[in-house]
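Worked example 4.2. Below are the chains of a multi-component assembly; read each line carefully before continuing.
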Amino acid sequence: MRDYILKRILMFIPTVLLMSVIVFFIIQLPPGDYITSYVSRMSAEGEVFTSEDIARLREQYGLDKPWYIQYFKWMKNIITEGDFGYSFAYNRPVWTVIMSRLPLTVTVTLIIMIFTYLVSLPIGLYSALHQYSVGDFIFTGIGFLGLATPNFLLAIILMFASFKLTGDPLIGLFSEEILREGLKLSNLGSFLKHLIIPIVVIGTSNTCGVIRTIRAQMLDEITRQYVLTARAKGVSENTIIYKYCLRAALNPVVSGLAGSLSSLFSGSTISAIVMNMAILGPVLYEALKTQDMYLAGTILLTQGILVVIGTLLSDIVLAWLDPRIRYAERSS
Amino acid sequence: MKSRVIALLMIAVMLVGMLTGCAGTAGTGSQTQPTKAPEPTKASQPTEAVKATPTTIPDSKTGSTSKFTEAPDLKALVDAGKLPSVEKRLPDPGDIMVEYMDSVGKYGEAFTFTYSGKNAQWFYGKITEEPLFRFKTDGTIEPNVAKGFDVNEDATVYTVYLRKGMKWSDGMPFTADDVLFFYYEMCIPETFGKSLWDCFKVKDAQGNESIAEFEKVDDYTFKVKFQAPKPTFLEELAINGKWCFAPAHWYKQILPKFIGEEEANKKAKEMGYSDAVAMGKETGYYYWNVPGRPTLRPWVVFENSPNNDCDGDYFVMERNPYYWKVDEKGQQLPYIDELRFIKVSDPQQTLLKILDGTVDVAAVAYADYDVLVENMERGGYEFVEWASVSWADLVSQLHLNQTVKDEKKRALFQNPDFRQALSIAVDREEYAEIISDGFAQGRQAAPAKGAMGYSEEWANKWTEYNPEKAKQLLESCGLVMGADGYYDFADGTDFVLNIQTFTDANADDSAELLMKYFGEVGIKTTYKPVDRSVLDNMTTSNDHEAVLAPVTPATTFSIILRPDTVVPVRNYAPWYGAVGNWVASNGKEGVEPTGDLKKLCELYDQLRAAVNAKEKEKIALEMLKLHEKNIWVIGYMEALPTLIVKDKKIKNFPENSIFCDEFRDFGIAHFQCLYYE
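Applying the procedure described above to all two chains together yields the following structure tokens:
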């Protein structure tokens, strides 16, 4: 087990390096660069740029060099100084920009994730154990509806409904009061109110997916031979379901955690934009759109690293959860 | 009624927008006397909501200054001993600027807007801007930060007077040194990454270019000297110089020249910038974003305030305690305590925030008109329309690149008959009905009604719907009907009109319609929206063909002062393509124009060299005539006025005005004079 983990960690380095090259290369692919988009945005506001101004801007940001030189410079600074560069758009170090949004991003995503599992596990179980019952049909129906509805559309509908009913569209995670004075105990209620729509919108789509997975897996498990055997031996129904079947059924859910870790970082971008949530997703989107390379590159790279770590973690959890994997590893 | 008022306004703009040189040529000191106060002319111009003149405050002969009053929050600070008294903060009583407005306001409340972070810096930049001289709605300029000016006979020496005792927002004195510092330490060394603005350059009769010289006379007077006459200096300064001063005391603590390269880079890092160059650009040009950078604006961003990050989710600009304007009653402006900006990531959120009454002033889309009307009661807002100076509606402007790379197409695009064919192939009545839901009328691309060069013939030129004649014209251009029902070039190769646009322009509907009309007369058309920056790039490198909804639409507030979109000056507007580069490089690069386009360039040269206003006007009209003759830009529908929603309770907001960059968009409303009922 230890060797296995060590081997996996060693594999990290080339994976991450390769990832960084690909990320950097892809960001460079669209025509133009940050300066082009910046100049066109500011020109639209009446600002005048001469071609010398533009050339100077390019030189200032180091964009006059070919992409691989920019890449090596970036990598060198990361490795030697831990400096991820400056965001062009924010004129701040990349990490300052990311850190300003990271705590909230993680909090919100964690809340949504917990909500997802708290809701979906029991429902999935119920659906599987009461297959083709009225309850199952209702949940399945809602599940499919949830999966099929685009998140952002649901967000718009809910915001409009909220506006029509209460007069407050509940845009964003914070009311103006919280934005002004910061989050305090006295206004926690308003924050929670603003969380309802994001949880419903982002939470439901994930929830529906997990419900479907659990249901299918459970149905698969409870028809297995070992369940029949256990029943025949008189093992209690609870033990069969929760100790054996559920444990096996959880495998794909746990594997899915790998992706969750990176979505913690910048998940649900489109919904976040529509709902004006001050999390990292929209920052990444904007950075990609304007080719704010170092910011986009750092976010994508970090996300990549998180996927790698997530995969490792989920493998470890799986090994712990599923004896079969453990034994296969040991015997090899 | 409304349109007539707007037209009157535009006529006023036209009259003066082109006669901008009058101050320069009409003799010495005719415009403004430094200390003598002109009579307030409030009632004489009803279209204007706000008037400003440098004047003494009534009643100053008593020597008592106790009549100046200030906002309650500032009063509290003064009483607590944290701030000097209002008299000490304002300039000398005789030099205070008095804003005359429809009604004298009262203090309190805040304005809330939505914004998209630093991308929107020009929005809050323009509404808080304080230039040396500012435009009035009639197109003339008036002293603002400056108290007045004198100019010599041949418009080569300007003497500008500043206001005694005026202070930066940090309480330090504002003097002529700050102006000279800006010019010599920031503009000329290009500290903020911009080449020297054209307003400081002049060409003499031989075509030699030289730059202005600034000279300090005393603390509150400076001279600007040119080698050749520069009659439009102050107007150009108001447009492209915008401001002409910087707090020397502040910059001497951060610029490399004064504290050394190393120290400056350290300072830059402390302030969060990558290096001194980035710091110079952000603090020098987009300075209103920078917490702690002293300004002269009504609202500023303080260093130690919360929410002072213009890239944050919530951004607040607070009252400048040293603001140098008062109302007629001696109340220090601004009335409104602060400006608040809530960051949004999608325009629909702004709409929702308007509907629920959060946003106080915003420009809105006609497409949202119905939902806005439906919720008027709830949101507590009303509509205001400001005129536009655009030649045609944005998505109804078709620019045919006169220097398109494909030789056969170039010949075709340069042929007026071809442009006429494209113009009359479209049923403008139907087009306008569909595209604008009946809000707008079909029309040719031409100056707005009332603006310089406007004529009804031009506005209606080539607007009759006549597909048959269009076909004849196409054939007269040498196109031949092919077997597929579409016209081919004479040599048998396919002719395809490739229309490009940028994605956020929302030109899809109009492109679809145009393609239908063009198809009906036998022109095969393709349509491709690309990213705004990509289209900009294409225009710069002359890779575009026909552009619908150009990033830089044809619009003239004044062809004399701001010619870029209708006269080739640099690669900028799609219709003149690489001719712009040819002009900018003095014929070394780009494509040399021919015929009328060449004549337009020559006229522009004459215009720049002309010393008196009459002559300038004559040349400008000739240039516009060339446009009318050639219709280089084909328009299909008029530009609608800018639709604005504002909180019903906001007072002093101009009912009629013009929404354009020169007037600083919303800035002409003079936000410091607005207040809540």
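Take a moment to check your reading of the output against the notes. Chain A touches chain B through 50 residues (CB under 8 Å). Chain A has a mean pLDDT of 85.
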